[in-house]
Every structure is written in structure tokens, then in C-alpha cells.
């Protein structure tokens, strides 16, 4: 069987306020911005199916050649927010690896006021047994997971 897919390029989230989202993803989580654009061409509107829409699109990337996080703000034709509970079909999240999740949690929660679903939870079975995981919310309520793999 021939594979149709060749690899990952990016994951994307629609955000309501780009500056607020950049303050979170860039300034709090430390993701560098690699592109910040407001396309004048009509192809983004055609790709999304919202003809006439205008956008601000920002790409963030931890390391060159790595996975890209795309944030899209609809400048026109913006929709209403969706319920983002993780038990709802169609709801997604993104997961970032960290070295010391309890320390990251302390810094983000106590010092920077980031909203977490829980404190770090020990992983007790499976491939990441011995590690920790936690969910947090971005300014739009989008779920972000932090994962500390087990120490060798």
C-alpha cells in the first residue's frame, strides 16, 4: 500500500485575539514566532471555505524544521466560540514535552496565573509510566497538555 501522508507540518487553532494568544504562546510558553502575516491573497479564504474572510496568521515553532503551531484570527467572518470540553467529539489539543513538569507547573500556575485543569498527575501505566501529565487552558479555553516523559 502506498502511503498518502508524508509527515506532519503544523497544527492550527482559531483564536479570538491574536495579541492575547501571542502573550500566552510566545511570552509565557516560549514558542518563537517564525511568521506573522495578514495575507492579501484570496487563497486562505478559499481554503477555509469562508469567501471574503480576512485573517491574521502566525506560525510558532520550537526548533527549526520541527512541528509548527499555527494561530489564525479571523479579522472578518469570525464565528462564535465552540464548547471546548475535551470529552466532546471533534475537540483537540496539543501536547508539549517538558523536562520537569512539577517545576513548570509551579512557575506557570503560581507565578504567571495560567489556568490548569489539575496539578501534575503521575502516569501509572503505559508507555509513559513514571512520567507526569497535565492539561491547561490557553486564553480561548483551548486545551494544552504538558508531558514529562519518565526519567531513565
Characterise the protein shown here.
- With 152 residues, the protein is an alpha+beta fold.
- The chain has two domains: 10-74, 2,3-Dihydroxybiphenyl 1,2-Dioxygenase, domain 1 (Roll), CATH 3.10.180; 93-148, 2,3-Dihydroxybiphenyl 1,2-Dioxygenase, domain 1.
- Helix content is 18%, strand content 30%.
- It has three helices and nine strands, in the order βαβαβββαββββ.
- The strands form two sheets. Strands 5, 6, 7, 8 and 9 form a five-stranded mixed beta sheet that branches.
- The protein is globular, with a radius of gyration of 17 Å.
- It starts with 9 loop residues before the first strand and ends with a strand.
Keywords:
four-stranded mixed beta sheet; 2,3-Dihydroxybiphenyl 1,2-Dioxygenase, domain 1; five-stranded mixed beta sheet; 2 domains; 152 residues; globular; alpha+beta; 9 strands
Amino acid at each position: 500500500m502506498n502511503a498518502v501522508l508524508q509527515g506532519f507540518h503544523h497544527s492550527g487553532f482559531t483564536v479570538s485575539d491574536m495579541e492575547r494568544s501571542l502573550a500566552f504562546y510566545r511570552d509565557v510558553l516560549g514558542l518563537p514566532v517564525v511568521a506573522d502575516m495578514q495575507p492579501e491573497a484570496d487563497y486562505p479564504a478559499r481554503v477555509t471555505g469562508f469567501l471574503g474572510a480576512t485573517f491574521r496568521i502566525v506560525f510558532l515553532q520550537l526548533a527549526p524544521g520541527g512541528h509548527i503551531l499555527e494561530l489564525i484570527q479571523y479579522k472578518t467572518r469570525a464565528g462564535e466560540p465552540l464548547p471546548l470540553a475535551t470529552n466532546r467529539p471533534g475537540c483537540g489539543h496539543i501536547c508539549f514535552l517538558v523536562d520537569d513538569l512539577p517545576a513548570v507547573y509551579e512557575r506557570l500556575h503560581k507565578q504567571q496565573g495560567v489556568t490548569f485543569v489539575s496539578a501534575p498527575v503521575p502516569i501509572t501505566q503505559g508507555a509513559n509510566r513514571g512520567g507526569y501529565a497535565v492539561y491547561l487552558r490557553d486564553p480561548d479555553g483551548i486545551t494544552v497538555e504538558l508531558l514529562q516523559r519518565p526519567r531513565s
